Structure formats: structure tokens, C-alpha cells
Amino acid sequence: MQFATNHLGHFHLTNLLLDTMKETAATTGIEGRIVNLSSVAHLYTYEQGIRFDKINDKDSYSDKKAYGQSKLANILHANELSRRLKEEGANITVNSVHPGLIMTDLMRHSFLLMRILKLFTYILWKNVPQGAATSCYVAVHPGLKGVSGKYLVDCNEYPASNFATDLELAKKLWEYSHNLVKSLQSS
């Protein structure tokens, strides 16, 4: 479920909007920007990064690792789309961001570690406007014109995991996601 909600839906929506974005960027000369919301949780995934053969495996499911896998998929998607758009010469950038730990109710049903961390809310966590800052920065700041395929934390480029920068894994995820969406559309 995490993979479908956090990655596949965004992958599909982005692809539905892409032709319009390309046309608009070409017509207006204004750079289009796509920002994928990821998380530092992308570090906490399954040992193979993306479990293509076990996406829906209930026997070895871990909520923490499934969430991490979906957030890794967000970065891989951004990186692969960035590569493809650069290859086409499209005037669109694609980046992924980690907003930080945000004080919202999303964590109320989450795994134990996050509930424990919530005790330190005012020290470690950001409020909603602080959490939105990096996404807004990447979406509109003129200093990021032409910057694509990056992972940003607190409005700065930040190194992502080895899995997140694996070009072959990104290509494999793209094909896997494309085929999944295609099969769902035809059924």
C-alpha cells in the first residue's frame, strides 16, 4: 500500500501532466519544476532497496521499511525523470526533498520509534511552515534555475543514500512503475 500511495500514484500523475508541462515550458520559456517529496526515511529500506518481486508480500512486510522503500522510490523517480528530461532537452527540472520531521497528526498510527520521537517534538520537529520551506525553495527560488536531479534537505543539497543514486535501480524502477500503471489501466 505504501508503494502505491507514496510512489505509484505520484509517478502516474506526473506522467499525465508531463506533456502539458513540456509544452508550457517550451512556449513560455519559463522553466517547469517538479518537486518530489521524499524523506530521510529512504535510508531505512529493505536490503535490496526496492523489492520488485515482493512489493505486496505480507509475510515479510515491515511498515518502517515499506515507508522507506516508497520514499526511496520518490528519489529514484526524480533522478530518472531528471535524466530523461535532460536527454530530451526539456526545460523542466526535477528534484526531491526531505521536509524534516513535521508536527502533524500523520504519526498517530506510526511505528513505535516515531511515537517515542514525538516526545521530543519541540527540539527535533518542525512546524508546518518550516517543513514546507525546502519544498517551496526548490519550487520557486531563482538560484535553483537549471538545478535538477538533486536531493535537498533544509534548502541545501544533501547526499542521498547509495540506493538513491543508483542509476540502474532508477531505470529499473521506472520500467517497473510504467508497466504496473499500464497493466492497471488495461484491466
From TrEMBL:
Signal peptide: none annotated. This is Short-chain dehydrogenase TIC 32, chloroplastic-like protein. PANTHER family: SHORT-CHAIN DEHYDROGENASE TIC 32, CHLOROPLASTIC-LIKE.
